[in-house]
Amino acid sequence: MLREGEYRALSVLSASPCYLTDQRNFSNDLRATSRMQSVATLDFTNSQPALTQRHRCDDLIECDPVSGEVLRQRQGSTSNMKFLLSATEPAVLIRMDCKYTDPTAPLAHGIGEIEYKGTIEINPVPRTIDIDLMICMFPAFESYAAIDDGAGAILFRHAPPAGIMTLGLPQGASRRIRSRLDDRNGDGIFESSNAASV
Q1: pLDDT tens digits, 49-63
Q2: CA separation (Å) from 135 to 17, 61, 107?
Q3: SS3 sequence, the chain?
Q4: Per-residue pLDDT tens over the stretch 2-19
Q5: Minimal CA–CA distance to 64: which of 107, 2, 113, 10?
Q6: Are 97 and 91 spatial neighbours (Cβ–Cβ below 8 Å)?
Q7: Which of 45, 92, 104, 188 is paired with 4 by a 20 to 30 Å CA distance?
């Protein structure tokens, strides 16, 4: 927590210099701040599903741990964040490959490089969505799915393992996440079927 400066009393990753966290818990609010965010939307109104995508990186704010002075504030690039529609029958398969790199932030802090990648499979007949992803050990990751702009149902929420910052961070996406949601009663609301992480 910073003791001085314009961000006084806000939580930080303790280092020298230090970096502001996103100051929040898990949330399905698309406006919530995050290191990186990816949104894929599938439109099934035509004969072939159409994919649109949106990616965002919020500002990384670096502060002096004693004075609280902002040393640098910068927004990451989304150039290495993408979805690819790789199949449309019998199910829709989306490949996701998203990486954020900040060359000025130490990799050891867990924010110099963040990555998530894998597959998203949507089957419109049984109305299911399955994910098989790889994520980093740090920071926290979360994923949601919705039908027709409804409330986002939780695909997964994963905080970093306890003590990870003192044990050292493995680089790259090394944690596997698998999960499924379905609309089993056809009411347009996803429900959790099962979830597993390795």
Answers
A1: 999 999 999 999 999
A2: 26, 23, 15
A3: CCCCCCCCCCCEECCCCEEECCCCCCCCCCCCCCCCEEEEEEECCCCCCEEEEEEECCEEEEECCCCCCEEEEEECCCCCEEEEEEECCCCEEEEEEEEEECCCCCHHHCCCEEEEEEEEEEECCCCEEEEEEEECCCCCEEEEECCCCCCCEEEEEECCCCCHHHHCCCCCCCEEEEEEEECCCCCCCCEEEEEEEC
A4: 999 999 999 998 777 889
A5: 2
A6: no
A7: 104
- Which residue in this structure is represented by tokens 């303790």? 14
In this structure, which amino acid lies at residue 179?
A: S
